[in-house]
Amino acid sequence: MRTDPESPETPVCREEAQLLSDEWLKVKTVPANGNLSPGIYYPTVTKRSVLVRRPLSAEYLYLLSCFRALVRLVSVCFMSEWCLVVVTGLAADRCALSILKYRRRPPERRVDAHGGGVVEHRHGQVRRTRRRAILKNGECNILKSKIAQRRLRFLQDMFTTLVDAQWRWTLLVFTLSFILSWLGFALIWWLIAFTHGDLEDDHLPPMQEESGWKPCVANIYDFTSCFLFSIETQHTIGYGARTTTEECPEAIFIMCLQSIVGVMIQAFMVGIVFAKMTRPKHRTQTLLFSKFAVVCQRDGELCLMFRVGDLRKSHIIGASVRAQLIRSRTTKEGEMLAHYQTELELNADGCDSNLFFIWPITMVHRINAESPFYAVSAADVLQERFEIVVILEGTIESTGQTTQARSSYTTSEILWGHRYVPLVTYNRERQGYEVDYSKFEETVQVDTPLCSAKELDEFYGNQADRRSIENAEPLVLRMPEKRTIEPQPAKAEEKNGDYTVTL
Fold first, then answer.
1. Rounded distance between C-alpha atoms, residue 368 and residue 225, angstroms
2. For residue range 307-337, what is the model confidence (pLDDT) as tens digits?
3. Is 444 inside a domain boundary?
4. Which residues of 447-478 are buried (b: 16+ CB within 10 A; e: fewer)?
5. 292 and 351 assigned to the same domain
6. Could you list the residue range(s) of the whole structural domain that residue 7 is in?
């Protein structure tokens, strides 16, 4: 246990201290004239507020050990050995989790007048958050309501509706389509047999040879026989017991019609299931976005960065990444645009947003004069409400389909003064590059200005002006030279036919 020199009253555990991205930061401003206070290094990163997580006391550890022993005793008495391991581990984890939840009070949340969330922290700071339009898993957090003729519009595009529906509804429609078609044609076969008189007692199959009766469909007794014949006809099973005869032309027509309808239903439903299983949406499960975005300096400029990765060996061809900023904006006329979208310029290393996506890549947005974050400082990030939506698009190498993966970052998911840890190394044993995805989310804290990029440019400009003045040659004062007036050529003027010369 150590004590923080800036706040001696607050003990901080070195091993369990966790930096919070959404706590207030101490911001040092630069005067307009560029003069810095003596003894202060600028730009620099001041210390952040930390969440103190003290170790569990001896009483909690004793209770936890007793609980584990009790669970083991019950497991030995009533369960097998493998259940003992599972139950003991789950019980211990749940117990520890409940203790941690009890010891840590979550921040209070409420909703403000603008529809955004307001988070009140332990020390009284109030920070506004924005509700997500895009969830972290890429789903759109949008509910569409009050649509005129909604069911009719969706039924007109039945194929897309079934592909987008959940699996239980797709399988239900798949099953009902076959069962209803079997029952419908079974009813038609029963009506044909009933109107022809094949279901009378003396016209049933055992009496047909004696009476010389020729039915429309052989070996039909009742509706059950018609249902079995409908299934055999639609799926061309052909057991050989029930067959159509040339006695009834309508029976021949219905047999041809049912065969065509059966093929159409099979093709339609198989196409839906195949399209649902091969949707490019499932490819996005192996495309990763970093949980947090970071802000740090790169080549003297403040940069907003996030990381993207691909878990599969089959690559994304023509991958491109773009980002859009969603925040409120007020026009000159006073109109409030609650969800105004702004495109953010991205690049990866020395390339543009088009990627050669063979390993995880860090996308960089340079905060310059053209960036919407040019006047945003670390403290402003805590007060503003905005969302950065990132979109990864490309063609799947194995199927040739276009896929799109999405994610978003809110103000609470931007770590100011952090940088990603390198995760690509060369493995000499395997003679190839190795990607350690355990470091995909890992960041380190680096020295980063807490001011905005605009203030940083002004500071660097003042420093450059000072260096130019200090390194310039000394000024030499000289008397101004006398100006000599050259005589102008004479001009001739005419007055009433006479010429006069003026000097």
1. 79
2. 999 988 888 888 899 999 999 888 889 889 9
3. yes
4. ebbbbbbbbbbebeebeeeeeeeeeeeeeeee
5. yes
6. 2-108
